[in-house]
Write a structure and sequence with these properties.
By secondary structure, this protein is of the alpha+beta class. The protein folds into two domains: 157 residues, Thermophilic metalloprotease (M29) (Thermophilic metalloprotease-like, 3-Layer(aba) Sandwich), CATH 3.40.1830.10; 202 residues, no CATH class. It has eleven helices and 20 strands. The strands form four sheets. The chain has an eight-stranded antiparallel beta sheet with strand order 14-13-10-6-5-18-19-20. Strands 2-1-3-4-8 form a five-stranded parallel beta sheet, with helices on both faces. Strand 3, helix 5 and strand 4 form a beta-alpha-beta unit.
């Protein structure tokens, strides 16, 4: 077995989900190699936990979705919710040989399935210790514009970072966000103002996602004003979107466009009332992830970026918005992407992707990736 598998498994069962003796952990593997699942089982057992495994294949899931019925997914949710209520932890490894596998699933079927499965998802997110990660495939290497071998090396580097080194900078950023009222985002095609007063912030350093590196909160639901043009491409529900533009008034998206996919974008935003409001605002700083690759678990952590999320809010930083949609849209503010600033209560705290206050500089790449002596 590749020794990197065991190292990654130990990070997921230890740092991420903090498994203890007697914990039941569901290992949810989507097109992931058996060897990694075996490594996770062994690592969980070594900590005294009880591993359970579910295996998925993307083509099978697509077929279930294509003719999805409400009765089918209501039954599936009941089963998933019952099982999730018996778990203390959840580890999802999501491979994908074709990121567009669900591109031809009708929007109405996707909407039905996501709405039906929301209760089980909410339980998992709010009631268990969980972590989600991608698995490197040739398809992901193509998306990143890298050779398969080079992408695998990149993947294991970013997934097994010393996430403990993120802690002091994240604590400082969280404390600042906890006491901030007004946020102003500026850059090419970006002029957005909103309040985060009283919402609270959450640090993410390898506990929920791997790779990781963000601090998130949510805007006060009706406070968002202005417009934003996202400069990172994205894939949502199996469809690729470029140049997404959103215009907000009193917190609600009142205009939206995405080039040739505008109609599909509007269908997603009309999924329910909450889809046109924002449930998350996050500042990202993973020093190894530099370029978008149309994989949100990587792209939302890009160094010098932030993401703004139409849809469901997390209970840990809750603005009350509820939706079946949760779509992290990313804007990169490093100079090569046009630059930009983030201001808290009139004070610029990050310019062109680099933090300025002394306490926050420990989130800049030169601290998080110290040079070897």
């Amino acid at each position: 077995m590749d020794p990197r598998y065991a190292k990654l498994a130990d990070l997921l069962t230890g740092h991420s989900t903090r498994l203890r003796r007697g914990d039941r952990v569901l290992i949810d593997a989507f097109d992931a190699p058996d060897a990694l699942v075996v490594a996770l089982i062994r690592s969980a057992r070594a900590r005294g936990a009880v591993p359970l495994v579910q295996l998925h294949q993307a083509r099978v899931t697509r077929e279930l979705l294509r003719e999805a019925t409400e009765a089918q997914y209501r039954t599936l949710n009941a089963l998933e919710l019952q099982r999730m209520k018996r778990m203390q932890a959840y580890i999802a490894v999501r491979g994908s040989h074709n990121i567009f596998e669900n591109a031809d699933v009708p929007s109405a079927r996707m909407k039905l399935a996501m709405a039906a499965l929301r209760p089980a998802l909410n339980w998992r997110v709010n009631k268990t210790r969980w972590v989600v990660l991608r698995w490197p495939t040739a398809a992901m290497a193509q998306q990143a514009g890298m050779s398969t071998e080079a992408f695998e090396d990149f993947y294991f580097q970013v997934c097994t970072l010393d996430y403990a080194r993120f802690a002091p900078g994240m604590a400082a950023l969280k404390a600042l966000m906890d006491r901030t009222d007004c946020v102003h985002l500026e850059g090419p095609g970006v002029d957005l103002r909103f309040s985060i007063k009283g919402i609270g912030a959450v640090s993410c350093g390898g506990e929920y996602n791997v790779p990781d590196g963000e601090v998130f909160t949510a805007p006060v639901k009706n406070s968002v004003e202005g417009e934003i043009n996202f400069n990172a491409p994205t894939v949502y529900q199996g469809v690729s979107f470029d140049r997404v533009k959103l215009v907000f008034k009193e917190g609600r998206i009142v205009e939206a466009s995405a080039g040739g996919q505008t109609a599909r974008l509007l269908k997603i935003l009309d999924s329910d009332a909450g889809a046109r409001y924002v449930g998350e605002f996050a500042i990202a700083f993973n020093p190894v992830i530099r370029e978008p690759m149309r994989d949100i678990l990587f792209d939302e952590k890009i160094a010098g970026s932030f993401h703004f999320t139409p849809g469901q809010a997390y209970e840990q930083a809750d603005n009350g918005n509820r939706s079946q949609v949760h779509w992290d849209l990313v804007s990169i503010q490093r100079p090569e992407y046009g630059g930009g600033t983030i201001s808290f209560d009139g004070r610029v705290i990050r310019r062109d992707g680099l933090f300025l206050p002394a306490a926050l500089r420990k989130l800049n790449p030169d601290y998080l990736l110290p040079k070897a002596k």
